[in-house]
Amino acid sequence: MYNFLTAFSVFLALHMVPAWPTLRQRLITLLGRRAYFGIYSLLSIVALIWVFQAALALDFIPLWEPAPWQAWTTFVLAPFGLLLVLAGLFSENPLSISIFQGNERKGAIVSVTRHPVLWGFLLWALGHVIANGDLRSLVLFGSFALFAFGGFFMVEKRARRRLGEKWPAAGQGTSIWPFVAILRGQAPLRADPVMILSAFATAAITFWLLAGGHYVMFGADPLLQALPFD
Q1: Are 79 and 206 in contact, with CB atoms under 8 Å apart?
Q2: What angle in degrees, to the nearest 10, is found between the helix axes of 116-131 and 68-90?
Q3: What is the pTM of this model?
Q4: Which of 54, 55, 75, 215 could disulfide-link 140, Cβ–Cβ 3.0 to 4.6 Å?
């Protein structure tokens, strides 16, 4: 457990950098924008791998018996979460986490929710909590879910403070909750190239995972739970 807590603490510390504008800007000035994002992405991936390896090394303690419907819940939540993360990271979004956060324009995914990356991580994590009935999975994915949930308050507060008087205009046509602005008629349901490419990438990654990639990486085949063989 100590190894997992250390790994997750490093993961959290890395993801506090974007939430600290002064430090983030200093690093971008020192390294350059491309180098900053490249190094940051590499360190984040390494930290994420460390978190998963530490979690998989924990003892397996069953909490409930997994059922096929739980796996199908993951098949719905995880791909949708991945779509939100990819589209959110690469869309222009001055309101939340995005590579192009500095731009005032908003990508199509922002009409769905102004915090697509956080919602993506939350749905992906919850989907895996439901499907797995053991303590280490609850600790791992539950930690990610809490991390994403806590991010809503921090990112929302930071965006409001940064935008100041521009916030009311910037927040029009979007909402924290997915699809609420669209259902209220405050924003159209639309797609742009980033969303379309993200959808294709999500489909390709999901197919690869279900075709054996998930088993190679994590030693578990989700299809075996969804389609049990007698």
Answers
A1: yes
A2: 160
A3: 0.85
A4: 55
Q: How long, in residues, is the chain?
A: 230
CA atoms within 13 A on the CB side of 38: 5
| Per-position b or e across 59-76, b if 16+ CB within 10 A of its CB | eeeeeeebeeebbbbbbe
- DSSP bridge partners of 208: none
Can you tell me the distance from the alpha carbon of 103 to that of 95, in angstroms, rounded to the nearest whole number? 10
**What confidence tens digit (pLDDT) does each residue in 118-132 have?**
999 999 999 999 888
Phi, psi dihedrals of residue 114, rounded to the nearest 5°: -80, -5
Question: Which of 229, 230, 227 is closest to 71 using CA atoms?
Answer: 227
